[in-house]
Amino acid sequence: MRRRQWATLAAIAVVFGLALYVSLPGTPGLPFEVAGRDLSDLRFRQGLDLQGGLHVRFQASPPPGQQLQDGDMDAVKRIIENRVNALGVAEPLIQIEGDNRLIVELPGVDDPEEAIRVFRQTGQLLVINTGFDFIDEGTILPADPSQTVLRGRDLRDARVGFDSLGAPMIEFDLQPDAANRFQTYTASHLNEVLTITVDEVVISSARIEAAIRESGVIRGSFTADEARNVAIQLRYGALPVPLEVVETLSVRPTLGRESLELSLRAGVVGALLVLIFMVAFYRVPGLVAALALVVYASVVFAVFKLIPVTLTLSGLAGFILSVGVAVDANILIFERTREELRSGRAIRGAVESGFNRAWPSIRDSNISTLIICAVLFGFGSGGVRGFAVTLAIGVAVSMFSAITVSRNLLRLAITWPALTRPRLFGAGAPAGSEA
Amino acid sequence: MFAITSRRGWWYLLSLALLLPGVVALLTGGLKPGIDFTGGSLIQLRFDETVTQQAVQAAAVERGYPGATVQLTEDRGALVRTPPLDVEAKDALVSAIFDHVGPGQELSFSTIGPVVGAELTRAAAIGVAVASALILLYVMWAFRRMERPVVLGLAAIGALLHDALFLLGVFALLGHVIDVQVDALFVTAILTVIGFSVNDTIVVFDRIRENRQRHLRLPDAQRPDFEQTVNFSANQSLSRSLNTSLTALLVLLALIVLGGPTIRLFVVALAAGFMIGTYSSTFAASSALVSWDRRDVPRAWERFRSRLTLVR
């Protein structure tokens, strides 16, 4: 063993140790950030099919004659966000897809029907008298009928305007019957504060500066964009365009947990079968491959956690498959080594040329798998992508583990003379000796 | 050494026997697209007591879904497929089923609207086309330094089409027999199998290239002919091919037996693909190379024509 090889072995040990540290459940993580990602938070990300939850894809479907306007989807997103926050779900995902779709994912939700009902609610606009208190935007303010001055249906229109100093404000018009009521009310409540809520979330508080009849303004410290969003919420009370559900997936957490447990058990049993097979068939190198496979599995898991990859059921299948395929590189190498031994080469030379000659095959053959993974990732969605990501990571790491880990461990093993008999390499007697 | 290439007639016959039932099943509409492509709803239920398929089906029909199909799964489970439902309609259907058949719980529910289904179908078609084009380019690149790269490429493509057709056929048969429907994951399985099939073929052909280079340096008298080189190379990679697919099959088998029912068909498709892929690259693709070298097809055609002439 040369000094360089010892250094490589030490490096492998460090990588293995780090990977193990990162991949263990409940790890405290690493105390730094990489590219804006805080590595002290290394929880295992599970997809909806493993932890249960709800995935809904909405499509904006404007009624005939109405066009989808710029910013409508942003307004929809804000409103849905408010409603989701009211549900109290941990780590919801709400994102706009393309120009007329919205994806909502609520992991771990036990009662998907309830969640869908909440989305379906039309947003309830209320104008509430809050005495002399200004309420911060975003505060939850439960409806109180006795203090409610106006409701969404009283409003005729709302739009953004600018005062003489150029500050944005919201102008609104009332329905005729509401206008009379509102005039009487504001005349007798001057200087009190009116707070506007949508779905019980405060969007603005303003002082009554004068009696208001059929139209008025709301001033506040908002930018033109914020004013515009508030105007949209006022105008529509709810969503600027109706949403149509085009895709739903709901998985009960019980089923998710069951799937996770079954897959993990299958993965462990499968990996053990592979280990047993490798040791039984290839002896000493098989043992080395088995060790390399342990390193492989922990590195892959660590990569999943570091990126982070959200593991779905099919992603887990991709990872488990990659365990079976990861030994392929080892098998290619050991078969070569065996051939070299049979042709009468000394053990050290046989091992080295086994690695060198197998490398082009390993590289060329894995590229085709990576090409397929790239296509699957590009054109697939959901489970298909999960599978492509885990399989691609698995294949990439397996090349590292076969070439670096197996090779150096095997070099180490054959420095021990007792381990160098060809029989222990599954090669039988070298050609030319007895049978 | 195992005589692989000299038995090539048998391999072609075996391939034909493997592919023919599937092709017939495909042509008779056995491959049934699932809700991923057609749009629809899929409800997964689990009953407290054992139920019959007919009872669940009858309950769904009575509730107003004559087109509903019901499939029983293990652990007293059932999969109910209907046209796209919203949450209220689904709730009503599920409680109607529980009322009629017996109590249980709903495990999962998915709905794909027809629009999304059409999009998924398009994405799958484009994905398959792009994957095929990239694999074709890659194969040409991988074999660029060999003799007759075009022949090798064609053989590799032939092997992967063989594998894809087999897999389609198996699922068409399953569609006929137990009403299996194919989803987006099935397309994933086919593409993955194609990737590994090419992977396997490349390893075998790499061997042929290496041995051929070595053999060409030998004096004329000792030099094996092309067929001997191919046969020798196929034998050399046989043990690797078998062992590699064996380890992959070990983990896939563990997933089939121990993993849950949700992705079982996906794993079955992968396992079937790995098996056929190992066979096709070592036996069928190598044989095809030799057939080309020996001009099997033109010779067979000549024989056929001369026989025709005799008859005339």
The biggest chain-chain interface is: A-B, 71 and 68 residues
**Outline type of chain B:** elongated
CATH class of the largest domain in chain B: Mainly Alpha
What average pLDDT do the residues of chain B reach? 89
Strand content of chain A: 15-25%
Count of alpha/pi helices of chain A: 10
- Which assembly state applies to the chains in this document? heterodimer
CATH architect. name of the largest domain in chain B: Up-down Bundle
Main sheet makeup of chain A: 4 strands, antiparallel
Strand order within the widest beta sheet of chain B: 3-4-2-5
H/E series of chain A, N to C? Answer: HEEHEHEEHEEEEHEEEHEHHHH
In percent, how helical is the residue content of chain A?
Answer: 40-55%
* Tertiary shape of chain A: elongated
How do you describe this structure in short?
The complex is a heterodimer of chains A (435) and B (312). Chain A has 435 residues and is α+β, with helices and mostly antiparallel strands. Chain A is built from ten helices and 13 strands.
Topology overview:
The complex is a heterodimer of chains A (435) and B (312).
Chain A: H1 3-23, E1 33-34, E2 37-38, H2 48-51, E3 53-60, H3 72-87, E4 93-97, E5 101-107, H4 112-120, E6 125-129, E7 148-151, E8 155-162, E9 168-174, H5 176-188, E10 193-198, E11 201-207, E12 215-218, H6 224-236, E13 243-251, H7 253-306, H8 313-342, H9 347-379, H10 383-413
Antiparallel strand pairs in A: 1-2, 3-5, 3-13, 4-5, 6-7, 6-10, 8-9, 9-12, 10-11
Helix pairs in contact in A: 1-7, 1-10, 7-8, 7-10, 8-9, 8-10, 9-10
Chain B: H1 8-27, E1 32-33, H2 35-38, E2 40-47, H3 53-62, E3 69-73, E4 77-82, H4 87-101, E5 104-112, H5 114-142, H6 149-178, E6 181-182, H7 184-216, H8 226-258, H9 264-293, H10 296-311
Parallel strand pairs in B: 1-6
Antiparallel strand pairs in B: 2-4, 2-5, 3-4
Helix pairs in contact in B: 1-6, 1-9, 3-4, 5-7, 6-7, 6-9, 7-8, 7-9, 8-9
